[in-house]
Design a protein that fits this description.
Shape: globular
Number of strands: 10
Strand order of the largest sheet: 1-2-10-7-8-9
Number of helices: 14
Oligomer: single chain
Strand content: 15-25%
Bound molecules: pyridoxal-5'-phosphate
Helix content: 40-55%
């Protein structure tokens, strides 16, 4: 499992454009999308950070099986399947929703990676972290190491905090702002914890519903208040996996200008948000900003044909 470390640190690049010049901003991107310990994009980005300590913990506790939860297009499901195959765990993905006759390409790949897919209806899915749900699963499948939905737990936060340690070594000083896309909020919470107030952590939720503030508070507990962070709820583009034409145009323009491909579900919205905020003068001239490219490129599989 030492292979995790061979791929870190992920590179930091500066992005320059007419926009950053005009607004006097130094803009950086950390390329966690290039963090691909198993050699491809199914297991990359923040999913690597989140499993980095969980997989060794599972192994040293003697587990041979991982069980986790996710939606049908979840990058996390894809990552656990690919990582399980590579590191020699069997994997079970408990998927929200009905089984379809034809699997979507992301789930199909997970299945090819050896993941056993187990579907539950949306009502039952709400019980996902309760013993009422887990006990029958243990009965059916035998003992497993539980990885929560989206991979977010204490060890995942520790992995995400590692991003900050890397930045401290890579940059002369930490940027004023570090910006990340949020799903469960685990990645942002870990970085908040790691930065000890030295950078302002700005989260851009990819989901609708204004719950992220509360979620981060829950993940961090009392320490949340002492830290330096905020979330900006205006860039979800209609909700999870919504991808309106305006966002597609942005992805094309971003790729053209900077030569970097965002994913459709998370980082497209993050990069849009940060560039839009720069354009609106939200950041004072002289501010340094870093965006985390948290990976997710396998997510394009779900968008084929759009
Ligand atoms: C899963 C994922 C996220 C969300 O991370 P959380 O820790 O759940 O907030 C962000 N970006 C990408 C590319 C992802 O795949």
């Amino acid at each position: 499992m030492e292979t995790f470390l061979r791929y870190a640190p992920s590179p930091v690049q500066e992005l320059r454009s007419e926009l950053t010049e005009r607004q006097g901003i130094r803009l950086y991107i950390k390329r966690d999308d290039l963090l691909q310990p198993t050699g491809d994009e199914r297991f990359c980005g923040n999913k690597v950070r989140k499993l980095q300590y969980n997989l060794p913990a599972a192994r040293s506790a003697g587990f041979e099986r991982l069980l986790t939860f996710g939606g049908a297009f979840s990058n996390h499901i894809a990552a656990v399947a690919a990582a399980g195959r590579f590191y020699g765990f069997s994997t079970i993905g408990v998927i929200r929703g009905e089984a379809h006759a034809v699997l979507n390409p992301s789930l199909q790949q997970a299945q090819e990676d050896g993941m056993l897919l187990y579907y539950i209806d949306r009502e039952s899915y709400r019980l996902k972290n309760t013993e009422a749900m887990l006990a029958p699963l243990r009965h059916q499948f035998g003992p497993f190491y539980l990885i929560p939905e989206g991979g977010t737990n204490e060890l995942a936060l520790r992995g995400a905090a590692g991003i900050i340690s890397e930045l401290k070594e890579q940059m002369e000083q930490l940027p004023d702002y570090i910006c990340a896309a949020c799903g469960t909020g685990g990645t942002l919470a870990g970085m908040i914890r790691g930065s000890l107030g030295q950078s302002h952590l700005l989260g851009i939720p990819a989901l609708k519903g204004n719950f992220m503030q509360q979620e981060i508070n829950r993940l961090l507990g009392p320490e949340a208040e002492a830290q330096n962070w905020s979330v900006h709820n205006e860039y979800h583009f209609g909700g999870y996996a919504k991808f309106p034409p305006e966002l597609r145009r942005f992805v094309d323009a971003f790729r053209e200008e900077y030569g970097i491909m965002p994913d459709p579900v998370y980082t497209a919205k993050l990069f849009y948000a940060v560039l839009d905020l720069i354009n609106r003068g939200f950041f004072a001239a002289g501010t340094s900003i870093l965006m985390l490219h948290s990976g997710g490129l396998q997510g394009w599989k779900g968008f084929q044909g759009l």
